[in-house]
Design a protein that fits this description.
It is a single chain. By secondary structure, the protein is mainly beta. It contains eight helices and 20 strands. The protein has helices at about 1-20, 45, 75-85, 130-135, 165-170, 220-225, 255-260, 365-370, and strands at about 55-60, 90-95, 100-110, 115-125, 145-155, 155-160, 180-195, 195-210, 210-215, 220, 225-245, 270-275, 280, 285-295, 300-325, 335-365, 380-400, 405-430, 435-450, 455-470. The strands form two sheets. The protein has an 18-stranded antiparallel β-sheet that branches. The protein has a two-stranded antiparallel sheet with strand order 9-10. About 25% of the residues are buried. Keywords: Signal.
Length: about 475
C-alpha cells in the first residue's frame, strides 16, 4: 500500500504536465480479484463493527416465521404490524472467551388470535473458533462467529378469553389443531454477526399437547383428550436484529469494503435465498425455492429485481367422515343445536402449492453520490426504495366431508395480485453471499373462480432473505 501511495505521488507531476501540454493520456482498468489484507482484524468483524470486546448484548430480533403462504384475511396493517414482525427480545451474556448464555422471550396476545402463546428460551452457545482466533489476533472476544448450541424453550399458551366464539368452542371441547408444543429442545449450528444477523440450522424435539378423536367421533382438544405427544423437527431459519453492546464504549472500525464488496462494480446478481428453505416435523412440512436475478439499469442507481418463489406444504389432520347434530346447553347461546363435523382417528394429509412471480423496480439511495466521491463502486448494495408487483397462484387439496355425499377431496385454487411500495437494505456480504432485509406495504387482491369470494386486503410484509449470490 505504501508503494502504491508513493507511485501515485510521483505520478502527479506527470499528470499535471500532461494537462498543461494537452498531451492525451490513456489508461486501462483491470479488475482486482483479491485485496491484500492490511490489518489483523478479520473482515467479518470489521463489516459489522464488532472489532471490540463484547461482554453482553441486549437486542430485539425479527424473523419471518409464518410457514403458510395462505392469505391472512383478518390482517389489519396498522394495528398488527408489530405482531406480524414477531419480535424476539434477547439478552446474551458472555462466559469466558468462547461461551455465552442467551435468554429470549417473545409473546403474542393479539385480540384476533384464537390462541395466545409465549416462547421463553435459554440457550448455551459455544463459539468453537473464537478462542483460536483471539489468540491469533484475528478478532476480539465478542458475539460474532460460528457456534454450536443447546437450547431449551418453554412454550406456554392459553385460549383467547376475549373471543366469545373461541371460548364457546373450547368449552365444547372442539379443536382446530393436531399438536400444540409446550416445550422445545434443540441442537443448533449457527453463524452470528454481532447484533445484526443470526443464521442457523436446528434439529430437535417438541413436547406438547395432542388433540384426539372422541368416542362420538368429534375432534377434541387437549382438555378433553388429555393426550401428550412428541414430534422431532428440522428447520433452517434466520433473524435480523438491532441492539446495544455492553460495555457501551465502541471502538471505531477500519475500512470494511473488502468484505462487503463495496469496491467492486456489480452490474447483475443471481441470488438463492436459503432462509426458511424448509421446516419438517411430524404434522407439518414446508419447503421453498426462492431465486432472484437483479440487474442494473445502465450506470444509474436503478435496478430491476426479478424474483420467483415456488413452495409446497403438507399438513396432517384427522380424516373427516361426515356431520352430525349435537345439543347445546349453554344459557348465553341463542341456539340449542349445532351441526359439527365427525372424524376418524386415521390421519390424512392436506397439500398446498404456491407459485409467486415478483418484479420490483429499486432505487439505491445515495448510490450516485457515493460513487462520485469514491466511497463505493457502482453496485447492488445499500439502502433502497422500490415499487413492486407480485402475482401469486395458490392451489390447495384438503380432505373434507360433504353432508350429502360424505368424504371428498376439496380442491381450491385462486390467485393474488399484489401491488406495493417498500424500503429495504441489501448487502453482498462476500463474493458468494448476500443479505436483503425489506418492509413493504402491499395492497392485495385475491380472486377466485367464484367472484362472490373475491376480496381485497392491505398488509405489511417483512422479508429477510439470506443466501448464496454470484
Amino acid at each position: 500500500m505504501q508503494k502504491l501511495i508513493i507511485y501515485i505521488i510521483l505520478l502527479l507531476p506527470m499528470l499535471a504536465t500532461a494537462q498543461t501540454d494537452s498531451v492525451k493520456v490513456s489508461y486501462s482498468e483491470e479488475k482486482v480479484e483479491k485485496f491484500e489484507k492490511t490489518t489483523l482484524i478479520d473482515e467479518y468483524e470489521k463489516a459489522f463493527g464488532n472489532n471490540r470486546v463484547v461482554k453482553s448484548s441486549l437486542r430485539i430480533a425479527f424473523n419471518r416465521t409464518r410457514l403458510s403462504f395462505l392469505p391472512d384475511r383478518s390482517f389489519t396493517p396498522y394495528q398488527n404490524i408489530f405482531r406480524y414482525l414477531d419480535p424476539i427480545f434477547q439478552f446474551e451474556q458472555k462466559i469466558g472467551i468462547d461461551k455465552s448464555l442467551v435468554a429470549s422471550i417473545s409473546t403474542n396476545t393479539n385480540k384476533k388470535e384464537s390462541i395466545w402463546r409465549s416462547d421463553i428460551g435459554l440457550e448455551g452457545r459455544w463459539y468453537y473458533e473464537m478462542k483460536k482466533r483471539v489468540e491469533a489476533g484475528k478478532q476480539q472476544p465478542n458475539i460474532t462467529g460460528k457456534y454450536i448450541s443447546l437450547k431449551v424453550e418453554a412454550n406456554p399458551y392459553r385460549y383467547n378469553p376475549t373471543s366469545p366464539f373461541t371460548a364457546f368452542l373450547i368449552q365444547q371441547g372442539r379443536a382446530t389443531f393436531m399438536f400444540r408444543p409446550t416445550s422445545t429442545y434443540s441442537i443448533n449450528w449457527g453463524w452470528q454477526f454481532g447484533n445484526n444477523l443470526d443464521f442457523g440450522f436446528s434439529v430437535g424435539l417438541k413436547h406438547g399437547n395432542k388433540a384426539g378423536v372422541s368416542n362420538e367421533e368429534l375432534w377434541v382438544n387437549e382438555k378433553v383428550s388429555s393426550e401428550k405427544g412428541i414430534t422431532p423437527f428440522i428447520s433452517i431459519n434466520a433473524q435480523t436484529a438491532l441492539g446495544l453492546y455492553l460495555p457501551l464504549k465502541r471502538k471505531s472500525s477500519g475500512n470494511y469494503c473488502d468484505f462487503l464488496q463495496c469496491n467492486y462494480e456489480v452490474k447483475q446478481l443471481f441470488k438463492l435465498n436459503v432462509n426458511n428453505a424448509f421446516y419438517l416435523d411430524r404434522y407439518f412440512q414446508n419447503v421453498k425455492l426462492d431465486v432472484a436475478y437483479e440487474r442494473k439499469i445502465g450506470r444509474s442507481p436503478f435496478s430491476i429485481n426479478s424474483n420467483a418463489v415456488i413452495s409446497a406444504l403438507n399438513a396432517f389432520r384427522y380424516t373427516p367422515t361426515g356431520y352430525r347434530e349435537i345439543a347445546i346447553n349453554e344459557p348465553n347461546v341463542a341456539f340449542t343445536t349445532m351441526i359439527v363435523g365427525t372424524y376418524s382417528p386415521k390421519m390424512s394429509s392436506s397439500q398446498g402449492y404456491n407459485l409467486g412471480l415478483i418484479e420490483q423496480l429499486r432505487y439505491y439511495i445515495g448510490m450516485k453520490n457515493r460513487v462520485s466521491k469514491g466511497k463505493s463502486a457502482n453496485n447492488l448494495s445499500g439502502l433502497y426504495i422500490g415499487a413492486l408487483a407480485n402475482y401469486q397462484l395458490i392451489s390447495q387439496r384438503t380432505p373434507w366431508a360433504e353432508a350429502s355425499i360424505g368424504p371428498v377431496i376439496y380442491k381450491d385454487s385462486y390467485n393474488e395480485l399484489n401491488l406495493g411500495l417498500g424500503i429495504g437494505y441489501q448487502v453482498q456480504t462476500n463474493r458468494h453471499s448476500f443479505m436483503d432485509v425489506s418492509l413493504n406495504f402491499i395492497r392485495q387482491k385475491v380472486s377466485y373462480e367464484d367472484a362472490n369470494r373475491n376480496y381485497s386486503n392491505s398488509m405489511f410484509d417483512f422479508s429477510l432473505k439470506l443466501g448464496l449470490a454470484r
